[in-house]
Amino acid sequence: MKALITGDRAAGADGLSLSEIPHPHAAENDVIVAVHAAAFTPGELDWPGTWVDRAGRDRTPAVPGHEVSGVVVELGYGTTGLTVGQRVFGVTDWARNGTLAEYVAVEARNLAPLSAGVDHTIAAALPISGLTAWQGLFDHGHLEAGQTVLIHGVAGAVGSIAAQLARERGARVIGTGRAAQRDAALELGADAFLELEGGWEEAVGLVDVVFDVIGGEILDRSAQLVRAGGTLVTIAEPPRVQPADARAVFFVVEPDRTQLVMLERKLRDGKLRPTVGAVLPLSDAVSAFNPAKRVAGKTIIRVVEGS
After folding, report:
1. Which stretches of 13-145 are DSSP H helices?
2. Which of 161, 170, 255, 298 would staple 133 via disulfide (CB 3.0–4.6 Å)?
């Protein structure tokens, strides 16, 4: 099968190539998915799991990409809950071959059913961003109706989903970003938008939850904005500055089928809209990792035309 594979670790994106590799094997509780569309995280070539397995052994050449939408074509021994021919979407393990390929082996528990009316290209943009937003806001931030959340990077892949989920929950949403992102942020459901320049903290005031995807100085300065009993949540780095009388949480997203099902339902019903920035064929997947060609939103690799 065709797949995008890594080369020398030192070469990074320059070492990627489209090659023929063996068809994946379905281990116990796995399924093989015929990939219709896939997505990746731009920084994943820096992740240890891209290069070594869980025992620390080199696993190159490896296939990047950890988000998939496609059709089940094979069941591993003991697999339950999914059937051959079923449309699915979800997340693959960080330390196994990924989704930028024609086929991928995935633990069945990391996939959820995908409704017939949902485009694979749109579904592939949702798993990591959707789970990250859900877990950050609700599992860690405990956001409730009537509260206020500050979302840094509100127009990005994660931030845009977080804004929509928070607004639907009944929270007030303050988003931040670059000036050019204002209209997009307000369209996504932000009640207010602030540029990350100058004294933006004064305009925010106190909030119940800060959801940060940027880190650094922005994260440091946000600690003072969390009211007592609130939560500072970030996926960028462990917080260096702790909020007074509030919690600070750094987390890494985890696969969760129940949450994927809830996200898919919202997607199907038109209550959630992932931000797709570009759609490229698998033959152009190497170029998708070029920083100069990055666009706002998720870059989707379409493996099957018409998906």
Report:
1. 120-123, 127-134
2. 161
Distance CA 71, CA 63 (A): 19
The upper half-sphere exposure of residue 260, i.e. CA atoms within 13 Å in the direction of its Cβ, equals: 27
CA torsion sign, 30 to 35 to 38 to 44? positive
What would the pLDDT profile of 167-188 be if each residue is shown by its tens digit? 999 999 999 999 899 999 999 8
Residues with Cβ within 8 Å of 246's Cβ and at least 6 positions away in sequence, in order, are: 226, 227, 228, 229, 230, 231, 232
Q: Give pLDDT, residue 61.
A: 93
Residues 155, 34: Cα–Cα separation, whole Å: 31
Domains along the sequence of the chain with CATH? 2-127+254-302 (3.90.180.10), 141-250 (3.40.50.720)
The DSSP secondary-structure symbol of 15 reads G
Q: What is the pLDDT, as a whole number, of residue 172? A: 98
d(CA 95, CA 294): 25
Retrieve residue 63's tokens. Answer: 């296939």
Provide the token pair at 55. 């025992």
Please determine, for residue 296, whether its predicted confidence score (pLDDT) is greater than 80: no
Q: Which amino acid is at 182?
A: R
